[in-house]
Specification:
By secondary structure, this protein is of the alpha/beta class. The protein has nine helices and seven strands, in the order H-H-E-H-E-H-E-E-H-E-H-H-H-E-H-E. A seven-stranded mixed β-sheet has the order 3-2-1-4-5-7-6, with helices on both faces. The longest helix is centred in the C-terminal third of the chain and has 20 residues.
Length: 259
């Protein structure tokens, strides 16, 4: 059986994501970028591997699944409990792909049911931090992995400057994130408990910040944001290192052997 989860573990409701993606609709459609922190991590797992299939959990609108399909031509699946088919179709078309290029599953990860198919790579980007029980949602990933498959989890780091910015100027967004999940030691200990092998946890990106509600902020907040952004970029050119204070992302990688 699949791992049992409780829908009360979710820090967000379906309506939250409907509103979130509808507000971003106009900016979603376009070619996926080859560069970027997330794609760099995906490349580190997929390039020169023998992976043939992947599933992205909680990945709507499918930007990263489309990147994986375009660059590596894996048998690619996207699973989310909210999927707007028209947005996915338009995004696929903008990237020169047929509307059937990736498989779509609209499903709730908290439901306890048999998983019909397993995958060589199971990954999520910006998912586990929306759950109260970090171990349970990581364990849920394992239900989808083929024996000897790869696990990749990427989540934001709100325990440094970026988190302070979110808490100060977008508290509503900050509050739908489980800040405790953004801890390298916690993630490593959970991976060890779940018997994930070859585990690595680390920060990605020297510096970056964002505000989901940037457009609605005052001119003073926007000016402060730009000053902080430029200052952080300059500082990390001088001292180029990834860190808890400045890095925007956290990564958990590992392998899953025979179960």
């Amino acid at each position: 059986m699949a791992s049992a989860m409780n829908e009360k573990d979710l820090l967000t409701e379906r309506k939250f994501w409907e509103d979130y993606w509808n507000n971003k609709r106009d900016s979603l459609i376009g070619p996926v970028h080859e560069s970027g922190f997330h794609n760099r991590v995906l490349d580190s797992v997929i390039a020169n591997s023998k992976l043939k299939s992947s599933i992205e959990l909680g990945g709507f609108p499918g930007t990263f699944s489309i990147y994986v399909k375009k660059k590596y031509n894996l048998d690619t699946t996207l699973l989310d409990y909210f999927i707007d088919q028209s947005i996915v179709d338009d995004l696929l078309a903008a990237n020169g792909l047929d509307k059937n290029a990736i498989h779509l599953i609209e499903d709730d990860l908290t439901l306890d049911h048999e998983i019909e198919k397993k995958y060589d790579l199971v990954f999520s980007i910006g998912l586990i931090e929306h759950f109260v029980d970090t171990k349970a949602i990581i364990k849920r990933h394992l239900d989808y992995i083929n024996p000897n498959g790869e696990l990749l989890i990427i989540l934001p780091n709100f325990r440094g400057i970026n988190g302070w910015l979110q808490r100060k100027f977008d508290k509503a967004n900050y509050d739908v994130h489980n800040i405790q999940s953004m801890d390298l030691d916690l993630l490593k200990s959970i991976a060890d408990e779940l018997k994930i092998e070859d585990v690595s946890t680390y920060y990605v990106g020297r510096f970056s910040i964002w505000l989901e509600n940037y457009k609605t902020q005052s001119v003073f907040v926007k000016a402060f944001f730009k000053l902080l952004f430029v200052g952080g970029k300059v500082f990390t050119r001088i001292i180029p290192r990834e860190s808890k204070s400045l890095s925007p992302l956290i990564v958990l990688k590992g392998k899953v052997s025979q179960k």
